Predict the 3D structure of the following.
Amino acid sequence: MAGSLLLLASCGGNSDAPTTTADERPELVIGDEVPTSASSLYQMPTPNELFVLVRDMAGEGHRKLLNPASNVDKYATLASRALNFGVYSTDLVYASYFKLNVEVARYYLTTKKLAEGLGLSSAFSDADFVRLESNLTRGDSLEVISNAAYLRAYEKLQSEDMGPTLSLVLAGGWVESMHLVVRQIEAFGESPALMARVAEQKVILEHLVALMEPHASAPEVAGVHKDLLAIRDIYDQVNMKRVPHRATNTSGRMVLGDDVEIDLTADKYAELVKAVDQLRARITQPEDRNNA
Amino acid sequence: MLRKDLIAIALLCIPSVLVAQNPCAEYHKFNCNRSADKRFSPNGQSKSAAVQVGQETELNIIIYRGQDYRISLCHDDKVLGADLAMRLVEKVRVPTGGTGADGRATYEESEKVLWDNTEHEMAQEVEFTSSSTKRIAVEIVAPGGAESLKVRDGKSFDIGCVGILIEHMPTPQMGF
């Protein structure tokens, strides 16, 4: 209550001032206008949403697919740190969803280390690490803890208005998600369901590119933005067909919009994989500190 | 005093330079009601923002095929009004049929309204199944409430917090 009074007192102004109608003189209390960022906001799905969908049809996780934790000290520039923060945090979520428990602890510490260089250390607390260590045999808890850390970092990047850094983190995360799903397909074998998940990443990539657009001209973002546009060009050549939903809905809820059929041919799939591999190799390539 | 009221006071008190830090940032976490259906999990794309009466605000999200979603709103009704207008709009990138200077096909963004709460008694929440992965904009417009009509010291009160809570679950398989 005391806090409330302090807040009220600090508002200033005369509370007895006459109340008039808005028609007379509208002037906003919070600046002259709503921040432009508030009128059109973008959110990216967290990596766990994709991993939940592919986990049940993709067999076991493989730690060799992850970016080696030993590389963490070799990313010197802010851009490289941000991109690889996206990569490592996606690896952390992957490890927790595919129950690679030792890697969860390793990648938590790796991601935390990179977070410190980006001003995001508050997202990765020592208390959480202790919690994580004590839950290493309980997969579900690891998912919760790693997701929470990812979300805290994501929200901090948003609240601190670190747009270019956020763009790079999300770009690194998307590329790593694609890499992990594609490699799971190679390890587990092709299936129409898994291929469909790769095909529909077209939509997520379009969303990511739109999210990055306001920062696309920033020098540190421009390169990776261009690389993502090149991958989007490949997706543009994939045939998509929209058809009204016909099947009975099993949950009883309304079905939102049309069904979309995406015909990802073997050639286009190979082209996509090549482009993603090349981009990931550039992103995860350790930097020469002397030249950074 | 309720947390909601404290946020409203904070909104009115802070200098404009602090607006970028978004005093509404966690509004949905404390004010939006979770679904009674415990199978729904909070989705990381949930978001809160400061919204001005009459100005359209949109939250662009991704919905995945094979998931059921619940999208619900919570807001400062004294400033923004009893019910917000909400639409779910799909955004699709479609070829224009033309080519650019580089000879490549050009594209434009097409929008299609999939759900509009003005046709559903201004419902402040909606549940649906996503049968394909889509880009969706949750569009919000606030009509304004009693407080938004008041002007004190030449200043109007027409900005309030809106929370958009998104929840999801794998589409349940029911029946035989």
